[in-house]
Amino acid sequence: MIDHLGIAARDYTASRLFYERALAPLGMQVIMAVGKEETGGYEGAGFGANGKPCFWVQSMPDGKVSGVHVAFAAPDRAAVDAFYNAALRAGGRDNGAPGLRPHYHPNYYGAFVLDPDGNNIEAVCHRPE
Known about the structure:
Order of helices and strands: EHEHEEEHEEEE
CATH superfamily: 2,3-Dihydroxybiphenyl 1,2-Dioxygenase, domain 1
Largest sheet: 5 strands, mixed
Structural class: alpha+beta
Distance between the termini: 28 Å
Strand content: 35-45%
Number of helices: 3
CATH architecture: Roll
Shape: globular
Oligomer: single chain
Number of strands: 9
Number of domains: 1
């Protein structure tokens, strides 16, 4: 079972702002932030709900990042649409507009955006309409 996941960001400030805007429609916000003084070298923001950070964005002092795919659960299809629109307004790039993906299963409704570092970020709802 995964407790939390973190990704690296070339521009921590831009990435944090992107995720603040993109994840708000999914009910997620910054729960915890740490600075270089506390970590010994990087900044980080933990996003989540109900007081528990589960998704972290952190600066990378050496500038190295690797592309990942992260899918966030959405409570309904409207939240998937809202995520997609918020992410694009926040500077994300389209990587798959909201819609059904029946090749996964009949009720798979998802949307994909690329974050400022090229990570593939998805919101998905598995419920029928």
